[in-house]
Design brief:
The structure holds 2 protein chains of 2 kinds.
Chain A: E1 4-10, E2 13-22, H1 26-40, E3 45-56, H2 58-73, E4 77-81, H3 85-93, E5 102-103, H4 106-111
Parallel strand pairs in A: 2-3, 3-4, 4-5
Antiparallel strand pairs in A: 1-2
Chain B: E1 6-13, H1 19-33, H2 37-58, E2 66-73, E3 77-83, H3 110-117, E4 120-126, E5 130-138
Antiparallel strand pairs in B: 1-2, 2-3, 3-5, 4-5
Helix pairs in contact in B: 1-2, 2-3
Classes of the chains: A alpha/beta, B alpha+beta.
């Protein structure tokens, strides 16, 4: 299953609805390009909606970290929304839940920026 | 699935495009072994991570080198061995991706994840061959089945 990224803007926050698998190759490239494209347009408040992400591998986790770091270096913020249990478990075991701000509620996530 | 071991072996060229193929075959085999959805997910993830490592880091994407994936399973246990033809690496000193100094690195989590989710895990350098990664998942059954 291929990966898609659709961006919408709500109250100054760019929400990227990701769907599919974030794995080495196409999945990580789609994520990387979506985030870089927003940063290039100076859209600095980014919320990645992972609710429809069925699978993420270590390269996908690496791209999340890389996107977070890139956004931070440019003065932006990148947060996560709607983790599935498996993605939550992967971020927990890799200690990345200590790095990312994670939300289950979109409105609450938007207010946090 | 009876308790006789089933054995399957694949040999693939060192091309990342074949990882989806290996993943699909792995999913078919975990279904055949009677794995539940969580077991199948973790085995699929582990195979994918190690095959990608073998192609990229072991065989350095050299299309003249192959990766061998060996499956052995029965109703109680699912074992996988993955052998590359690379020069090996210092697996006694793999950095801990959870260490604060490594936490923000964009790579280095694959083997850590496989170790975390499998019941057995080993790495070995086979003389004149390459690096072999072996791992296994116990397949617990509900009582009475």
């Amino acid at each position: 299953m291929s990966m898609t990224a659709t961006t919408r803007k709500v109250e100054g926050v760019s929400i990227v609805d990701l769907s599919g698998r974030i794995t080495i190759g196409e999945g990580t490239v789609v994520l990387k390009e979506a985030v870089r494209s927003l940063l290039n347009k100076r859209e600095m408040n980014i919320l990645l909606n992972l609710g429809d992400v069925s699978y993420i591998d270590s390269s996908g986790i690496g791209e999340l970290v890389s996107s977070f770091t890139t956004a931070g270096k440019q003065g932006g913020k990148l947060k996560l929304l709607n983790l599935t249990k498996k993605v939550h478990d992967l971020l927990s075991i890799t200690k990345l839940l200590t790095v990312f701000e994670v939300f289950d509620d979109e409105a609450k996530a938007i207010r946090s920026f | 699935m009876n308790n006789q071991d089933s054995v399957i072996e694949l040999r693939i060229q060192s091309n990342l495009e074949y990882t989806d193929l290996v993943e699909n075959i792995t999913n078919n085999l975990t279904a055949l072994a009677g794995c539940d959805s969580d077991q199948a997910y973790f085995i699929e993830m582990a195979v994918r991570e190690i095959v990608v490592n073998a192609i990229r880091h072991g065989n350095q994407l050299d299309l003249d080198k192959v990766v061998r994936v060996h499956y052995r399973f029965n109703s109680e246990r699912f074992e996988v061995g993955i052998l590359d033809q690379g020069g090996g690496f210092d697996f006694d000193h793999l950095p801990d991706p959870c260490d604060p100094e490594n936490l923000m690195k964009s790579s280095g989590r694959g083997i850590f994840l496989v170790r975390s989710f499998m019941d057995d895990f080993s790495l070995a350098r086979l003389p004149n061959q390459g690096t072999e990664v072996k791992f296994a998942k116990k397949l617990s059954r509900p009582q009475g089945c």
